[in-house]
Amino acid sequence: MILYHTGFKEIKEPDVHYGRKNADFGQGFYLTADEEFANRWAGERKGEDTIINTYELDTNGLEIKYFNREREWFEYIYGNRHGKADEITADVIIGPIANDTIYDTNGIVTSGFLKPEEAMQLLLIGPEYRQIALKTKKAASQLKWLSSRVMEPEQIARNKELLTTEEAQYLGLLARELEKLVEDE
Known about the structure:
Layout: E1 2-7, E2 29-31, H1 35-40, E3 51-57, E4 64-66, H2 71-81, E5 92-96, H3 99-102, H4 116-123, E6 130-134, H5 137-141, E7 143-150, H6 153-184
Parallel strand pairs: 4-5
Antiparallel strand pairs: 1-3, 2-6, 3-7, 5-6
């Protein structure tokens, strides 16, 4: 499996304990199999290059948990964001990214202001990007760094334009769904 990670340094040996515990799939090293996604969501940091690392993951012998946009996925994300102990023991988790993570929604979806059913309904809107989280040292040991490249500023700017358009579309969908929730109250 060829995977990509975007950041500000070349990462040949990722640390599965570096990521945030309250991220979608809890603590781990996050990647994507979608190179376009890795490019599109690349950030910028003053004085630093934006680096796309490319890896190959040997999945032989790894326990992999797959999620789709369903209740189990939502409950796992919701639990992680609220500090619930991670009960999944898989080496790798593969599933959709919660769009409120990548678009500016001020944390409303899993803030606790909405009922869980309402929050799940909101997480189902918008495009579906998938992520891969390496959760164990065993998984990290089977991840082989292949290469890295520096993203050019022009490419980052083009991707930001695409993201701005996509984010506006998503926020429009989110606003309509929130209005429906308010009307139903």
